[in-house]
Amino acid sequence: xxxxxxxxxxxxxxxxxxxxxxxLFDREVTAEQLTLLASxxxxxxxxxxxxxxxxxxxxxxxxxxxxxxxxxxxPAEASRSxxxxxxxxxxxxxxxxxxxxxxxxVPLVLxxxxxxxxxxxxxxxxxxxxxxVTTALACxxxxxxxxxxxxxxxxxxxxxxxxxxxxGVRELEQQTAALLSGRDPEAHTFPQRVGFxxxxxxxxxxxxxxxxxxxxxxxxxxxxxFAPRGEVPVVAGTAVQVPTFHGHGLSLHVRLKxxxxxxxxxxxLKGSPALKVLDSPGEKVYPMPSxxxxxxxxxxxRLRSFPQSPEWLTLFAxxxxxxxxxxxxxxxxxxxxxxxxx
Length: 342
Known about the structure:
alpha/beta, globular, oxidoreductase activity, acting on the aldehyde or oxo group of donors, NAD or NADP as acceptor, Aspartate-semialdehyde dehydrogenase, Semialdhyde_DH_dimer_dom, protein dimerization activity
């Protein structure tokens, strides 16, 4: 890596931002190369960086001057303006929000899946990343597609509250404490109380549609990722906010184009470096959010099929939404972009 590369992390105090900072330290990015940025509310906070402490600065247009790489761990509304400012300053920009995922002119990149796009010619200096759920879906579906073909996927995603950032974590903490004390808490970050509850809505519903933005995003993002491979599985499902803090769980029903015994499907999944197969249910070994935290792989298990419908494969998966589903993708894509010839 170029030791003169300067990197800005925007949203550094958030759930994903903190993971980005930790990942950059693991990649031996020096404190001198790094600038931490956030909103005025978080400016002045200090984050540990190895044995050093870095102060978070308020983000502004001037913040991007001299930066070679800007990593946006910010909400979509903020990313739309910040991405323009950072590109205008000459930086490569990688955005983890949904702001640019639907824009055809902006590459949608999942490192390890279509990393070649990071070396291709494209307009602008901006790359978008898929959501954590789409990241898990693509990692699981690709080896199955290669081995058997994939026609259709039905998914129920059980999403931890850290998907809504620090505000989501605080709300679950406060609601849990209130309910245990016999008080009825109000919902602010989520559409309904999430403490001791399940909420079948993540993000707003689309206008005149029964689908939420989160759910529609999976369909769109998977289509963009798989279209160059000439085979686009139909992806649809339900996003459920659950009262856990970190990690997402996915219940998947996959219709294969060619029926496959479970042993063959398991072997295909085991062959992917993006996955870790935990599938010994008799020994109580299966994916759980508590196991996937800080693991760069997607965990897969509980594989089952039905003799009456051998083309359907059922499984359960988990992904670290802040790590593999966001921060690792940001850093891996960003460092590869920054290594492009000038």
